[in-house]
UniProtKB/TrEMBL annotation, chains A, B:
The lineage of its organism: Bacteria, Bacillati, Actinomycetota, Actinomycetes, Micrococcales. One of its GO terms (biological process) is isoprenoid biosynthetic process. This is Geranylgeranyl diphosphate synthase type II. CDD domains: Trans_IPPS_HT. The keyword 4Fe-4S does not apply.
Length: 356, 356
């Protein structure tokens, strides 16, 4: 089960986030009068690429805000929407970096503009570059939108300053994590387990769990100890989530996870699972298969066997449990009210029981 | 002569901008403690790519601020530094879009990380993609930095809101202009002169002239009529500057301009000069040469002949004069104090007399 489904945020509150997002896109789109049809076109494309998500980060903001007794939903909704736009910006740019042209079965920003270019008769390599170019621009607009939403969230000066700092830290972390990930793929050496964990924490966990939870707490006017505990909860559960995700990327049932169990192995994705296996003698037998562009189902089965035999799978699953336990501990602190604990505990369980 | 050299901003004021920039980089770099060595590495690379510029946009901010009687230099310096970071963000991403790996004779962000990758034994195409990936991330950090600087500039709430709006409009305009430019190159049809002017206004003039001048005026507490007049001045002189730049890109003396007079023709850059020529029958003789990857000096000479014979060169030069005259008119308005006029008038002259 996905943690998304377990975080109970009342529909009314989440609807306010949708309204804020719609409002932002409407205003941005209407600015086409000043910035021309190209701007409006980009904004509508971004809108499509932002819709239909699970709103995980807004849910984190609102869960903290709601259970910590926050009063001004309007401010929380704007901050929640800002984290959704930040997410859009980061995945649009991440897709450029990964040269992905599809997300959730649909052409992403790069993909839709690539397709537009090939339809106009442009050769594929050039069309791909054009699509990626537009995606760079679109991501910039979404990133700017996140700052603009927090800037205009309506909180008092002190609160706004702290929210901007949380947003800014999340951007810096994501940038550092993305760069570390690019760096891993640039060298033939395998990163250590700790290096992989640090990369995943920076690249995803920070802006997805840690920062939105803390932002919701800040809007609610929570004390420093609570904000700190929620940060630790977010960091640890975020890392646990990522490790489980990586295990599922190799061992998950394709018809349950909805994604290929060969993709990660074929692209040579550096995960905790692989970083651990690579330190074991068993790995020598499959090292040449890992990251090979023509890796097939049979090769994948060989690697999986080694991942099990070398103890890497067990190691990764235990590591995920360890981080989930640290998340529990953060939740158990006195500074965290029972209602917050009750709301977030299922997230821990769902991460550990996750099979898709 | 470059307009940069004619805008007289006292050294002390410009030094404050350098201090703010240095401070921003120092703080960002020190955050490596939280975000790891990858973050610090990126920041130092961005610092190198921001240093040594002519600080044209900060000069615009400070000129408006200073001549309009602005009092709080600290605020103006932060806003000025924000526009410099925005410039860095936009050129770093523009270089990704143009697949440029060199700027001002030095490897740019993409170039330095590409070189690092090839040194590590990565094949060139992959290394180029890695370099561009890091540049996408670095540009995001610089863009976030621009927002952060304006957010924390210390102005009162109302002023800060207006400054963020100016920054935001500049980002939207630059994105729209960049996209229009990408779009031009995606189709075989030639844009009209008006379309090229609109693209250049959005892509460069807005964030380089219009927005910084208005931001300086806002910090100085100028009235709406003055801000409006400076906006019109900036827009028109910015367009004039760009048209002259495009003419020099084809007719300039390489040893004076410091850049190849063949590059623009070879890459098929859509400029006012070309958009006008393409509507004339004389163009048919050279149409096949324009944008050809193996265009040589002789081909370039043929195109130049046609640009002169068809009247395109004269047309472009007159158009630049027209826009410069509109800039004069904006400066001549009653709402613009004599000191501001005296400081900005040389910019108009320098654009018109520009030979490099």
């Amino acid at each position: 089960m996905d943690p998304h489904d377990l975080v109970v945020v009342t529909g009314r509150r989440l609807q306010r986030v949708e309204d804020v997002l719609d409002g932002w896109f409407d205003v941005a789109s209407a600015r086409g009068e000043r910035f021309g049809s190209h701007h409006a076109h980009l904004i509508e494309n971004l809108r499509r690429n932002t819709s239909g998500g699970k709103r995980f980060r807004p849910r984190m903001v609102l869960t903290a805000f709601e259970t910590l007794g926050g009063g001004d939903l309007e401010i929380a909704a704007r901050v929640a929407a800002a984290f959704e736009l930040l997410h859009t910006a980061l995945i649009v740019h991440d897709d450029v970096i990964d040269r992905d042209f599809v997300r959730r079965g649909q052409p992403n920003v790069s993909g839709s503009y690539r397709d537009r270019a090939t339809t106009a008769g442009i050769s594929l390599p050039l069309a791909e570059h054009r699509g990626m170019s537009v995606a760079v621009i679109a991501g910039d607009l979404a990133l700017a939108g996140a700052y603009r939403l927090v800037d205009g969230c309506g909180a008092d000066e002190l609160t706004r300053g702290r929210l901007i700092e949380l947003l800014d830290d999340a951007v810096s972390a994501a940038a550092a994590g993305e760069f570390a990930d690019v760096d891993f793929s640039m060298h033939n050496t395998m990163p250590t387990v700790d290096e992989v964990i640090e990369m995943e924490r920076l690249k995803t966990a920070w802006y997805s769990f840690e920062a939105p939870l803390q932002a919701g707490a800040v809007v609610a006017g929570a004390g420093l100890a609570t904000i700190d505990a929620l940060g630790r909860f977010g960091r640890n559960i975020g890392i646990a989530y990522q490790i489980v995700d990586d295990v599922l990327g190799v061992f998950g049932e394709e018809d349950v996870t909805g994604k290929s169990a060969v993709g990660d192995l074929r692209e040579g994705k550096r995960t905790v699972l692989i970083a651990h296996a690579a330190t074991r003698p068993e790995w020598d037998a499959v090292r040449h298969l890992f990251g090979s562009a023509d890796l097939d189902q049979e090769d994948a089965a060989c690697i999986r066997e080694v991942l099990v035999a070398s103890g890497a799978r067990t190691y990764a699953e235990r590591l995920a449990s360890d981080f989930a336990n640290r998340a529990w501990e953060a939740l158990a602190e006195d500074s965290v009210p029972a209602s917050t604990r009750a709301e977030l505990a299922p997230v821990v369980r769902s991460v550990l029981e996750r099979t898709r």
